């Protein structure tokens, strides 16, 4: 309803003050306290007078005015732009007051200030009770004791005291509830019960608000249901759960308001009673203030019970950065006495300044301390500095008293006489009679303009007399500029704390800042996580296996935690360890004979998004049964993720009370389904994998059979291992510019963050948009290089844009991250290009109630391409599931290789997958997820590997493909280009490293001569002798790894050894350029029929290569890898002992050196290369140590060779196999196994990847 105001919209006239300046205001008296919910303004009728911006103040008493705040900031209302239009505002929070004051800030440039005003609201009435510090309301219960599971308590209070108990209740069993002011903050303490042994502590304490001693009304509501509590102060609600395990609040006799009752326990004392006013006190439906008026409760402690609130005598003054207040004092006095109280957040500022007859005195706040500067210029300049206090910029009221008389000065802060600072004054002072507070902006010869004070002052005394600030307001004494009288508009910007995730908040008068150190988050409000969401994301950044911090929900409530990432396989494994050591002995059974083992993890939120999870459990037993009992109740069980009880064991599944041996029918005793259930005196074990991920991880194991004599058990619960990240690859493809996905909107809080990946070939398109009641949010691709982020808050449009130096429509993945918080808005592209804008003040919460559109909406041009991993405020949106139901949008996305194919190394081919990509290493000499793992073997004497190019498959095998260096091999069997790459290490000479034969007499051979130097022999026909390349002066048989790369293109041969520069050689003109009919590749030794170069056989083929060969590749053929990987089908044969090893894989990474210092140079006979830096000395190496080490190495090598030979001889008849069949339910040999294998969650678990190896 409309309240009775004289100047209404749509009526003639209006208010227009005589003077148009910043000191005008319009005050409305509502007669009684009313609840105002809206305001409407209009300019003065038929004129050029209107108000474009204004503020609202309100009060109950025409004193101590309070500005209207919105979202923690002094609200500036946008007014009118003409004289006839009506602008109405619905207040975010109602105003409860009798007096409303409108302060014009800006007005019509064509005219003057003009306003017609209407206030909307309703009547308000409540019983008010005044407390004087000794008054207590004791509300006695109808029964002596109350056992309550639900509480609702509400009240409003107003005070100038920073400390005092508002309510208190307690019980004989230790339960209590207490609400009190401490340093002008409100603290709720509650205890639902603690046990006598102290193992259960129920005390819970929560603090809210600040600056509550401002003599304004504050509303409190406490709602409790069992352990869940909502604590609301002035519309800000904190939700928490009480500590302990009890749900009831047990109170005895009474609950008191205004202080502690006489019956309170002695340890509850020492706390001050409340001084001020309360109204609207209710306790579980009972109106306490109404009962007091009706004399239904005990008020005997009140000296004078009044139902009104006394006015405060304080008259605060509010200073901004350009304010000062000038007050008169005595002139020509030899005594200076000034005192006042102040409160501020700024560490620096001028508090008071006065000019003496000869000099000046300044009282300032310097780094949180009160400092007095006295400069006396009589006869000679004398400067005196004294200071006191610390941390006085904490927003609390602090008093300052300065006395200067005769020959000394005293400074007292906060009335602490014991810490009063005294100093001597060498001469007599003489006052000037004028005192400036808050700033001094008059330019004189004695003092330059000083830094100003931002804050509030009150209780100003000059010459021991209280200054009459109301007379100042009326213009009777003193002067002021830009000062707000009778109000203190101090705002605590750190309450509520907008620094998220435990960030520390600090503030000045104008703003706040967050220190995010140690939180794992970053940004202006510590909102953005510093870490990736999963191991999968680290892998796709090119990271290798290791320990990483991950944050699956980003800005959500789950803190980052450390995991181990295994990226060696196609799928990434995430491992999360727990606190239980392997083979932990089970003991300490309780009274029921049960032993409880708690399993704790660092943090956990990986199972929900994982594709597969598993956890190994093992129960070793001796006379300790696991599951079986006569009545069927399991002796042992475990609790999983949802704290649900599970009675199946590793290798089994939900609903099947068996162990792995019971599924596979191989238990120790066929009558039981677990080995341990046989109850034998010998040690047995039941072990296996738990793979139903919705139940994982194991949080608790209860063992029930260890109390019998002779019973022993040992428990192992392995780490939780999860594979994949469905959220990271959750994607959708938009195939039409009119297609979109829509989701229920999210409600914006003080911070909003949005992140996603996209790839497109289009230059324009809307990524997403959300349209709210008053606000909207929009992210769009504009042009081929620009991403924009725009939002509208409170009618003000903010737009950010980031330009990429490369086109964004290149069909590669790009990441967009947008964040809006209370301080700033940030748009980031690909983790490096940013745009940052300040967020408009007064609008900290974005509330969206419409749908979230991903893609086109409102007829706009939508996004064309793929989007994945859309996350808003830590929550991943399921694009795939929504796309299944939406026309024009397909689930999943192809084309990951365009962005991530660079991670496939050494010629590996990127293969697209539905939810990612893999690297195909089949045409390389490498293995691993990125084709970076060396494949090599150790050759013993006589060992050789032969790879044959079959005649009928020759043209196909040698078809035109790109070699490792990009050289193309023609489809004919006659080669004009080839590339041979390998690494080796050996100490034996001579030997053949690689020999490539043909069906003609052409060949290529790489050999080590007797002196350890390398020789390359090319025989392509046309020459009487093979063309040889001798790498002299380098002993390659020194036991160190070496790499060789030989590339031929027609007559040009390029050779690179290790890290040394490439050397180029040219075949003679008489030589052919075709390598005709390549037939076989030999490694280690040649065993070939037909005509072979006799020099090779006679000089280098016996006894054969002994050492390591690694990463052998001839064009697109990897013969050594084919020999070591039984899963590869290839025309390969091996003779002798070949042991997998990468000992020849890592060439030394030292820079090229001069021949004088080259240890491989024959002339550098005395040079010793220090391979072990820790052992080197100035005169070389310790020769005795080297000799002893060599002897030990030879002995160990000899023993190993003998063992390998014996084992091979004993098991020569056996082969090797590796089976990885996916067994379906139709092949299960029992019903239990059929249940497990038919469940997708149990794929390949019972018989997963069985391996047998025979040597």
TrEMBL record:
It holds the Pfam family Laminin_G_2. Residues 128-309, 314-488, 730-893, 954-1143 form the Laminin G domain. GO terms for cellular component: membrane; paranodal junction. The keyword Nucleotidyltransferase does not apply. Keywords: Cell adhesion, Cell junction, Disulfide bond, EGF-like domain, Membrane, Phosphoprotein, Repeat, Signal, Transmembrane, Transmembrane helix. It is found in: Cell junction, Paranodal septate junction; Membrane. Residues 490-527, 894-932 form the EGF-like domain. Residues 526-578 form the Fibrinogen C-terminal domain. Disulfide bonds join 866-893. It is a single-pass type I membrane protein. Residues 1-122 form the F5/8 type C domain. InterPro entries: ConA-like_dom_sf, EGF, FA58C, Fibrinogen-like_C, Fibrinogen_a/b/g_C_dom, Galactose-bd-like_sf, Laminin_G, Neurexin-like. One of its GO terms (biological process) is cell adhesion. The chain crosses the membrane at residues 1186-1207. Its main location: other. SMART domains: 4.1m, EGF, FA58C, LamG. NCBIfam families: GGGWT_bact (NF040941). Belongs to the neurexin family. This is Contactin associated protein like 2b. The gene is cntnap2b.
């Amino acid at each position: 309803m409309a309240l009775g105001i004289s100047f209404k919209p749509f009526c003639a006239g209006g208010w227009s003050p005589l003077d148009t300046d910043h000191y005008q205001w319009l005050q409305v008296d509502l007669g009684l306290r009313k609840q105002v919910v809206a305001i409407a303004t209009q300019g003065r009728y038929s004129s050029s007078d209107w108000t474009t911006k204004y503020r609202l103040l309100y009060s109950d008493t025409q004193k101590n005015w309070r500005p209207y705040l919105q979202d923690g900031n002094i609200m500036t209302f946008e007014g009118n732009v003409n004289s006839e239009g009506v602008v109405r505002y619905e207040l975010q929070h109602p105003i409860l007051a009798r007096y409303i004051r409108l302060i014009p800030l800006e007005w019509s440039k064509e005219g003057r200030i003009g306003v017609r005003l209407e206030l909307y609201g309703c009547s308000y009435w409540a019983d008010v009770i005044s407390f004087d510090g000794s008054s207590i309301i004791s509300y006695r219960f109808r029964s002596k004791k109350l056992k309550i599971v639900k509480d609702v308590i509400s009240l409003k209070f107003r005070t100038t005291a920073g400390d005092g108990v508002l309510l208190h209740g307690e019980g004989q069993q230790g339960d209590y509830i207490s609400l009190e002011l401490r340093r002008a903050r409100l603290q709720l303490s509650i205890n639902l019960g603690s046990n006598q042994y102290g193992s259960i502590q129920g005390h819970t304490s929560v603090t809210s608000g600040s600056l509550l001693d401002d003599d304004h009304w504050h509303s409190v509501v406490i709602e409790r249901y069992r352990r869940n509590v909502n604590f609301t102060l002035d519309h800000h609600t904190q939700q928490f759960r009480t500590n302990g395990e009890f749900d009831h609040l047990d109170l005895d006799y009474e609950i008191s308001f205004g202080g502690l009752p006489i019956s309170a326990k002695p340890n509850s004392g020492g706390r001050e009673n409340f001084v001020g006013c309360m109204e609207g006190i209710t306790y579980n439906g009972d109106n306490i203030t109404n009962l007091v008026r009706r004399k239904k409760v005990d008020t005997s402690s009140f000296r004078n019970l009044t139902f009104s609130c006394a006015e405060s005598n304080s008259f605060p003054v509010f200073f901004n950065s350009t304010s000062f207040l000038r007050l008169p004092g005595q002139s020509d006095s030899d005594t200076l006495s000034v005192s006042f109280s102040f409160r501020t957040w700024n560490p620096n500022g001028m508090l008071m300044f006065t000019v003496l007859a000869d000099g000046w005195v300044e009282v300032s706040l310097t780094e949180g301390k009160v400092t007095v500067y006295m400069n006396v210029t009589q006869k000679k300049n004398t400067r005196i500095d004294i200071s006191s206090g610390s941390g006085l910029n904490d927003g609390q009221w602090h008093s300052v008293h300065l006395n200067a008389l005769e020959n000394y000065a005293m400074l007292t802060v906060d009335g602490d006489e014991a810490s009063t600072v005294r100093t001597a004054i060498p001469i007599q002072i003489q006052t000037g009679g004028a005192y400036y507070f808050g700033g001094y902006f008059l330019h004189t010869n004695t003092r330059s303009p000083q830094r100003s004070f931002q804050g509030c002052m009150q209780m100003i005394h000059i010459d021991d007399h209280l200054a009459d600030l109301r007379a100042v307001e009326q213009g009777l004494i003193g002067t002021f500029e830009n000062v707000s009288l009778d109000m203190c508009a101090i705002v605590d910007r750190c309450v509520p704390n907008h620094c998220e995730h435990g960030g520390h908040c600090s503030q000045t008068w104008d703003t706040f800042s967050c220190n995010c150190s140690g939180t794992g988050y970053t940004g202006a409000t510590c909102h953005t996580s510093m870490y990736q969401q999963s191991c999968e994301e680290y892998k796709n950044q090119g990271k290798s296996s290791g320990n990483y911090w991950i944050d699956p929900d980003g800005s959500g409530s789950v803190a980052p935690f450390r995991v181990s990432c295994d990226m060696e396989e196609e799928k990434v494994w995430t491992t999360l360890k727990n606190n239980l050591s392997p083979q932990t002995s089970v003991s300490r059974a309780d009274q029921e004979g049960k032993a409880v083992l708690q399993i704790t993890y660092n943090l956990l939120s990986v199972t929900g998004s994982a594709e597969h999870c598993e956890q190994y459990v093992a129960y070793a037993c001796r006379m300790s049964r696991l599951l079986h009992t006569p009545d069927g109740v399991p002796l042992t069980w475990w609790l999983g993720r949802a704290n649900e009880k599970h009675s199946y064991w590793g290798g089994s599944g939900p609903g099947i009370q068996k162990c792995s041996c019971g599924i596979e029918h191989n238990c120790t005793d066929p009558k039981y389904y677990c080995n341990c259930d046989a109850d034998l005196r010998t040690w047995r074990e039941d072990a296996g994998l738990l793979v139903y991920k919705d139940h994982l991880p194991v949080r608790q194991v209860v063992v029930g059979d260890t109390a019998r004599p002779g019973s022993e058990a040992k428990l192992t619960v392995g780490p939780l291992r999860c594979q994949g990240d469905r959220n990271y690859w959750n994607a959708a493809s938009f195939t039409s510019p009119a297609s979109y996905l829509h989701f229920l909107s999210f409600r914006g809080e003080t911070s909003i963050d949005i992140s996603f990946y996209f790839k497109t070939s289009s230059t324009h398109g809307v990524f997403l948009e959300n349209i709210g009641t008053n606000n909207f949010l929009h992210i769009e691709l504009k042009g081929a290089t620009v991403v924009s982020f725009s939002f509208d808050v409170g009618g003000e449009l903010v737009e950010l844009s980031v330009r990429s130096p490369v086109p964004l429509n290149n069909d590669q993945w790009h990441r967009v991250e947008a964040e809006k918080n209370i301080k700033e808005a940030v748009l980031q592209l690909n983790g490096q290009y940013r745009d940052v804008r300040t967020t408009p003040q007064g609008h900290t919460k974005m509330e969206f109630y419409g749908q979230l559109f991903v893609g086109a909406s409102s007829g706009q041009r939508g996004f064309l391409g793929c989007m994945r991993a859309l996350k808003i405020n830590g929550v991943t949106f399921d694009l795939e599931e929504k796309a299944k139901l939406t026309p024009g949008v397909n689930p999943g996305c192809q084309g990951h290789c365009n962005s991530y194919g660079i991670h496939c190394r050494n010629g590996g081919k990127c293969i697209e997958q539905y939810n990612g990509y893999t690297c195909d290493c089949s045409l390389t000499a490498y293995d691993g997820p990125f084709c970076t793992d060396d494949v090599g073997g150790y050759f013993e004497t006589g060992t050789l590997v032969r790879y044959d190019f079959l005649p009928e498959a020759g043209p196909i095998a040698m078809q035109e493909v790109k070699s490792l260096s990009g050289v193309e091999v023609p489809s004919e069997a006659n080669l004009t280009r080839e590339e041979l790459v390998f690494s080796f290490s050996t100490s034996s000479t001579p030997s053949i490293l690689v020999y490539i034969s043909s069906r003609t007499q052409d060949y290529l051979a790489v050999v080590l001569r007797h002196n350890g130097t390398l020789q390359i022999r090319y025989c392509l026909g046309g020459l009487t002798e093979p063309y040889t390349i001798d790498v002299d002066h380098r002993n390659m048989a020194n036991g160190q790894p070496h790499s060789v790369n030989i590339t031929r293109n027609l007559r040009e041969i390029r050779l690179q050894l290790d890290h040394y520069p490439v050397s180029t050689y040219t075949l003679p003109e008489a030589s052919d350029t075709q390598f005709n009919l390549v037939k076989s590749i030999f490694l280690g030794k040649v065993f070939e029929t037909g005509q072979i170069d006799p020099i090779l056989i006679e000089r280098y083929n016996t006894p054969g290569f002994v050492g390591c060969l690694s990463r052998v590749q001839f064009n697109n053929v990897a013969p050594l890898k084919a020999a070591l990987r039984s899963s590869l089908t290839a025309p390969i044969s091996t003779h002798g002992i070949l042991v997998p090893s990468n000992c020849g894989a890592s060439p030394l990474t030292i820079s090229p050196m001069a021949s004088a210092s080259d240890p491989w140079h024959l002339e550098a006979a005395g040079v010793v290369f220090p391979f072990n830096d820790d052992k080197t000395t100035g005169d070389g190496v310790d020769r005795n140590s080297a000799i002893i080490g060599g002897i030990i190495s030879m002995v160990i090598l000899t023993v190993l060779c003998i063992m390998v030979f014996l084992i091979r001889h004993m098991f020569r008849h056996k082969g090797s196999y590796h089976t990885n069949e996916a067994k379906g339910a139709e092949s299960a040999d029992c019903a239990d196994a059929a249940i497990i294998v038919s469940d997708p969650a149990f794929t390949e678990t019972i018989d997963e990847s069985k391996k047998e190896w025979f040597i």
